[in-house]
Amino acid sequence: MAEPGDQTSIRSRGRPNRRQAAGAIEAATIIAGVERRIPTYDLLSEVSLQTIEDAAELILEEIGIEFREDHESLDLWRGAGADVVGELVRFPKGLLRSILKSAPSMFVQHARNPARSLKIGGSHVVFAPAYGSPFVRDLDGGRRYGTLADFENFVKLAYSIPWLHHSGGTVCEPVDIPVNKRHLDMVAAHLRYSDKPFMGSVTSAERAEDSIEMTSIVFGRDFIDQNCVILGNINANSPLVFDATMTGALKVYARANQGTVIVPFILGGAMGPVTTPGAIAQSLAETMAGCALTQLVRPGAPTIFGNFLSSTDLRTGSPTFGTPEPALGSLVVGQLARRLNLPIRCSGAFTSSKVADAQALNESAVSMLAAVQCGANFILHSAGWLEGGLTMGYEKLILDADFCSALHTYVTGLSIDPNQMALDAFREVGPGKHFFGCAHTIANYRTAFWESEISDNNSFEQWRDAGEQDALTRANARWKKLLAEYKKPPLDPAVDEALAEFCAQKKSERADQWY
Amino acid sequence: MAEPGDQTSIRSRGRPNRRQAAGAIEAATIIAGVERRIPTYDLLSEVSLQTIEDAAELILEEIGIEFREDHESLDLWRGAGADVVGELVRFPKGLLRSILKSAPSMFVQHARNPARSLKIGGSHVVFAPAYGSPFVRDLDGGRRYGTLADFENFVKLAYSIPWLHHSGGTVCEPVDIPVNKRHLDMVAAHLRYSDKPFMGSVTSAERAEDSIEMTSIVFGRDFIDQNCVILGNINANSPLVFDATMTGALKVYARANQGTVIVPFILGGAMGPVTTPGAIAQSLAETMAGCALTQLVRPGAPTIFGNFLSSTDLRTGSPTFGTPEPALGSLVVGQLARRLNLPIRCSGAFTSSKVADAQALNESAVSMLAAVQCGANFILHSAGWLEGGLTMGYEKLILDADFCSALHTYVTGLSIDPNQMALDAFREVGPGKHFFGCAHTIANYRTAFWESEISDNNSFEQWRDAGEQDALTRANARWKKLLAEYKKPPLDPAVDEALAEFCAQKKSERADQWY
Q1: Which of the residue ranges A94-103, A384-393, B304-313, B457-466 would you say has the lowest mean pLDDT?
Q2: B402 with A317: CB under 8 angstroms?
């Protein structure tokens, strides 16, 4: 059982010591989330929010949601007072809100290094890397299928970057490992190469159970029954369907008192209407249903109100990301989730660009700022996302993580206090002089401004003489440096061996499946 | 006198017809600004705002502002009740706020094509291209000094792009023309190659007068005495100085009832303190003083409350742009300016990047979103800015302008009405089906989602087979296409000739100055 107390942990909340992290990032720099001290950006009025909530209730009551091939879930709904006909469940007005009262508004996801445990909810913000891409891309090798080696690289990179608080889940698909066995290697990699919180498998109930079983090797069974140590990301099959794979995993996580993130995946025009307010109402209905199901399985189990809204290029049918409509949608989803008193998951560094170019970082900035401004507590896909989620980018991860660093400063806001007002500096400097050497500057410059680890702020001549590198090229050097300098966090050798034995045993019991 | 009524004008407010603009942009597509229908993002509380206002008043009263080598301005201040000692002016508490009451909260800047006249103030948002760079850059030729040919190209591009409502001012420095003559060519280019509103020279009182004189050839002297047809961008010499060049131009514009934009240029740590709240207080003091001076010259003259906050890389002293601190600063400046009831100018698509790469568009997105969210009415540097303003980029202009297009949709917000709620679509489609062909989609798809003119949303395979172009490469093709398709807006030949004669006459009167 690991109860690590042997690690130097610098727990920094709010504005971190940037100097420390800026030069050489050390894995010892621990930033356990960041607290949002700026207000949320509330887009809609009370009346408009009520209109959307009414629409969601109408969808739930009149149209309903299908829970496919899962009699247990249908029985739970029937028992809770829903109207169940075949696989279609209709919900009397107010039923889901009433069920959701037992869900915690905030919870702690424990890390195997306690200094990295994260509060999820309230004013806390957690950045996690992107999730689920079959492909990876870097500047040298271009685009290719992800492997376990890539997966482990991304776990190591997320561990090395203090601005990513969470190790994520399927940081890429290790397609060189059989489908029914790769979850074992993925969970082992998160536990072995990082000591940050992480996400487990949801692709079947069995794999979800394996994921949780592996955490019990590290945390102990008693601990995990009372504490959240792993999250499962549960997608609705929008519109208005949950399939048995997803509810199967949902039930495993909830029953074990582990966290679920309930996420309708709605591309407007495809899995939802082309009008954003309608898609928001649908998202609200689907998320409430998923979150409420966790409470029927185990009241009080932690669950996160997720959403994934995006738009569609209606000329081609291609999904689009980082566009204005989903950014507005996120702001509204934040308002709605707060009215339910649930932790919020929002969209991260989205883009449809194939490479980490101008398009990619513009779209990602729009999407990430909306996530932060809407009050999201858990921001999945904060770093690495390319090509609508089909590709995890090495350079993109670096560039996005640098923006996560900036957002630490952004969400911390401004302090209006005498030192910040700097009146003595004006008295010292006076009209027409500069502030470089004044006492106030000397006293404050160490923490004064956010510093990028990747931007080039040098003069044109310095930049030219250093080889005219663009951001993509600099990011390429950065991830290689981080991997080269990576140091594995300590793990009890007995625990490490037990994990390996568990994986070997499970693999030996099953024939390889490749799809 | 041009009173053009012979042009096809499609005046579109709010959400424009994107389809029309998306395919082939036509100069006939007229978007005279856009109205913000989303709330502003108000960062600070009433108490904190009051603290900043008190600090500004203290700076004004105790430290004061120097007005250098300009006895007329000092006399105006003395007459208004300020305490003038030498060139230092100290302002009794409340004096500037009292003077500013005569300034309009909104005004119209007239264009020679009336359909392109712009409201500046209230909920109106105007995007103008970047201003003042000595260099230009494109993907083919790299970085080089700007010429009059480049200047004319940027005027033509801004004319061709409907998302830029304004022709800007010194869209680049035409360094091939003598310093004391280039303003004539610049103003002529704005009037000849565009029919959008524009900005005139501020580099001397004489050049400001020439600029206004040229507008009188187009609009008529009586019209311009009663209406704003040109803006002058007046920088404070921060900290706490206005020099005679700037106040000289300020007085010319104000006396002629033309618009001024008063802009302190504060890089924290250099021309202001390293703490953002102090820099905001300084900016407030300086802007109030500049705007108030316009009112002493001519009460009621239009003036815009400007600001230009940025941070500094304190390791190197280099200015940084698009970082979190100035984004937060913009939100506060918006709140402060609204309390003064003045139109707001805010920072645009800032970056310190040398090229239009991932860094550039991330920084620009952060900066532009802050400008829009803070309620800015006039956003200078909305497109083209590179390298801290030293370079105007052809591709950057295209990429930024596309984001301006997105922001048209963003500021328009969401409509919460029955069509947008799409309940009939849910009734038609039901669980598990898709929305592509449903009646609601067919009725709404034309205006449903913002469409980029430059992003690639295609599949990886389509993108690969089309040559793996990044955004920079696509933008390169785009500006060339726009210039190739550019059609000059009609201008009365007699007016055109009178402008040419005026320029020739003025040039012949003066010996070339090159610095």
Answers
A1: B304-313
A2: no
The alpha carbons of chain A give a radius of gyration, in whole angstroms, of 23
CA-wise closest residue to B399 among B376, B374, B382: B382
Quick one: CA dihedral A225, A227, A232, A233, positive or negative?
Answer: positive
| pLDDT 10s digits, A36-68 | 999 999 999 999 999 999 999 999 999 999 999
Whether the CA torsion A450, A451, A453, A456 is positive or negative: it is positive
Q: Do residue A360 and residue B358 have CB atoms under 8 angstroms apart? A: yes
Cis peptide bond upstream of B418, omega within 30: no
User: Which of A372, A449, A476, A478 is the best substitution to test chain B (most B C-beta atoms within 10 A)?
Assistant: A449
* Residues of chain B positioned with their CB less than 8 A from the CB of A389: none
pLDDT of residue B447: 86
To the nearest 5 percent, what fractions of chain A are helix, strand and coil?
45, 15, 40
Residue-level pLDDT at A22: 38
Q: Tell me the torsion sign for CA atoms B36, B39, B44, B47.
A: positive
Nearest CA to CA, how far is B421 from chain A (Å)?
4
How far is the alpha carbon of A433 from chain B, nearest alpha carbon, in Å? 7
Q: DSSP assignment, residue B266?
A: E
Query: Testing the interface with B: which of A274, A352, A396 to mutate, by most B Cβ within 10 A?
Result: A274
SS3 A135: strand
Could you give the angle at the alpha carbon of B355 between the alpha carbons of B350 and B357, nearest 5°?
85
The pLDDT score that the predictor gives to residue B316 is 83
Report pLDDT for B308. Answer: 92
How confident is the model over A261-306, as pLDDT tens digits? 999 999 999 999 999 999 999 999 999 999 999 999 999 999 999 9
Which residue in A280, A315, A359 has the most chain B C-beta atoms within 10 A of its own C-beta, making it the best mutation to test that interface?
A: A359
The alpha-helical segments, DSSP class H, found in B11-130 are: 18-22, 46-58, 71-80, 95-99
Task: Dig out the tokens for B135 from the structure.
Answer: 């260099």
Segments of chain B scoring below 50 in pLDDT: 1-27
Give the separation between CA A196 and CA A142, rounded to whole angstroms. Answer: 29
* CB-CB under 8 Å, B431 with A64: yes
* C-beta of residue A187 within 8 angstroms of C-beta of residue A216: no
Q: Which of B190, B212, B181 is nearest to B488 (CA)?
A: B190
Question: A67 vs A100, A239, B466, CA distance in Å?
Answer: 18, 12, 42
pTM of the predicted model, to two decimals? 0.95
pLDDT given for residue B24 in this prediction: 38
Return the closest-CA partner of residue A183 out of A206, A165, A167, A160. Answer: A206
Look at residue A5 in the predicted model and tell me its pLDDT: 31
Neighbours of A341 (CB within 10 A): 15
The residue of chain B with its CA nearest to that of A459 is B318
Query: What is chain B's Cα-based Rg?
Result: 23
Task: Tell me if B451 and A354 make a contact (CB, 8 A cut-off).
Answer: no
CA distance B66 to chain A (A): 7
pLDDT of residue B28: 52
Whether pLDDT at A497 is above 80? yes
CB contact under 8 A, A457 and B316: yes
Report the mean per-residue pLDDT for chain A: 94
Contact B316 A390 (CB under 8 A): no
Q: Is B90 helix (H, G, I), strand (E, B) or coil?
A: strand
Query: Helix (H, G, I), strand (E, B), or coil: what is residue A449?
Result: coil
Summarize pLDDT for A248-259 with one digit per residue, the tens: 999 999 999 999
From residue A40, alpha-carbon distances to A288, A374, B289 in Å are 22, 5, 33
Which amino acid is it at B393?
G
Whether residue B239 has a cis bond before it, omega within 30° of 0: yes
Residue A21: strand, helix, or coil: helix
CA distance B273 to B279: 6
Task: Look at residue B13 in the predicted model and tell me its pLDDT.
Answer: 33
